Every structure is written in C-alpha cells, then in structure tokens.
Model the fold of this input.
Amino acid sequence: MESVKSLVSQLTGIGGGRAALERTSLDDVVITLAVRSPLCKARKGGFKDTRSDELLTEMFRAAIARSGIDPVLIEDVCVGNVLSPGSMYEARAAALAAGIPETTPVQVINRFCSSGLMAVTTISNQIRAGQIEVGLAVGSDSMSAKYVRTCLHFVNIHQLIGVRDRVAPTK
Done:
C-alpha cells in the first residue's frame, strides 16, 4: 500500500518539493566527497606528458586524503574509463599505488560519454543492494594519449565508410 501511495504522490505532485528531498530513508545512499581533476587543453596543456595511470593514482590519493577514510574500509572501486586500452591494469595499479589494499576489488566500466557517472551508479547500487558499505567511484581519461588519436581515426574512417555506402552503394 505504501508503494501505491508513493506512486500517486509522484504522479500528482502531492508531498513533493523540498520536504520530499529532505526525507530520509534507510536505503539512502550518500555521496560524501566529490573530487575533480584539473582541466587543460588536450595534447597541448599542462598534463600532455602525464600518463593516464599517474592521473588516476593522484585521483585515488586525493579522494582518500580529503575524505580521511582508512583505505582498508573501501570494499570496491569502480573506474569509468572509455579510451585507455589497458584501463583495467591501470586502475588496479593506481589503486595499489594509492594505498588501497590488494584485497579490494577494482572494476572498470567503459561507456562513451558517461563512464564516470556509470561508476558512481554502480557503486551506489552495490551499497543500496547491501553488497558493500563503502565504495570509491572514479571517472578517468586522458585526451592527450596516443591511443585517443588512434580511436578518433578509427571512428572517422568507419563514419565515412557508412556515409559512402549510403550515398553510392557498392555493387
């Protein structure tokens, strides 16, 4: 019956607004810290010679330092990364270098345009399901790396092939 009342209130707008946002529930998942790496120009900026695993290691270290959490409490790490061909190895090495124990699993999500958001969603869902209590979600990519140029070249070639086939089908 409670779920029916909740659905009705969502459809009618009754009980919404700020009061609904401030209402707490036992299954609430709370993001306690957000850290953003600095931005600069790709292939020309301040990080053009910095490897993506080095950037990721510093993101892990910053999250641990700013949160003040003992890395032993982190039960899972999820990294959103779409471009790096060895992202699973980079993520694991970066986690170990940042002091996250080897017993903590690390997973990588590859999703164009929203891999970092998918990492947050994955950790949040694991907490909500009761699989873990503390997790670390990170999005990381380097637009200066050589593999980015290769990926972009690959995409452009296939887009052109698709356009060519629509304009002048091959026999």
About this structure: The first strand starts at residue 76 and ends at 80. The first helix runs from residue 2 to 12. Confidence is low (pLDDT under 50) at residues 153-160, 162-169. The chain has six helices and three strands.
